[in-house]
Amino acid sequence: MRRHLGRGLLGWRLLVVATLSAILPCCSDRRNIQRGEELFQENCAICHAVSNLDLKKQPPKLDGLFQSKTLPSGAPATDEQVRRTIINGIGTMPAFDQRLSSADVNDLLGYLHELK
Ligand code: HEC
Predict the structure, then answer these.
(1) Residue 76's pLDDT is what?
(2) Pick from 4, 42, 66, 94: most CB atoms within 10 A?
(3) 75 CB-near residues (< 8 Å, 6+ apart)
């Protein structure tokens, strides 16, 4: 009887996990670094991976961004701050709120963390 109950519970648990993973968009908080790199190449590299742009203020290199305590602007080097920078823009850097979804920004942050 008890054994039977145990098996039933396991079955339920499997069912719940299977249902949840079907309902929730897969891995919504997991960062896809490869996609982050693609997004970076498409949206950011044009400024951040080249030098001598025709801009008054040259975009900073983003290698090791999260290794330092502060961003080039002096703001804290946190995910939240960098997310804000991407969404709102800063100085001559455009806002990406119309171009990138919050999942895109997550993937980008994942990639930026990989840049040592
Ligand atoms: C049109 C050129 C341009 C593009 C495109 C661009 N940036 Fe920037 N970015 C800049 C410039 C210029 C600055 C320096 C702004 C300042 O401090 O006035 C900057 C600064 C930053 C900073 C540092 C912010 C700080 O607080 O010091 C981060 C992080 C950043 N950009 C990330 C990104 C990411 C990620 C993308 C792609 C989604 C991107 N940028 C696209 C020009 C650009």
Answers:
(1) 98
(2) 66
(3) 81, 85
Q: What pLDDT, on a 0 to 100 scale, did the predictor assign at position 51?
A: 80
Architecture of domain 31-114: Orthogonal Bundle (1.10)
For the entire predicted model, the pTM comes to 0.81
Of 26, 49, 50, nearest to 37 by C-alpha is 49
Instruction: Give tens-digit pLDDT for 40-51.
Output: 999 999 999 988
State the distance from the centre of ligand 1 to the C-alpha of 92, rounded, in angstroms: 8
What is the maximal distance between C-alpha atoms in the chain? Answer: 77
Probe target for ligand 1 pocket from 90, 98, 105, with the most ligand atoms within 8 Å of CB? 90
Does the beta carbon of 103 sit less than 6 angstroms from any atom of ligand 1?
Answer: no
How do residues 51-75 score in pLDDT, each as one tens digit? Answer: 888 888 899 999 999 999 999 999 9
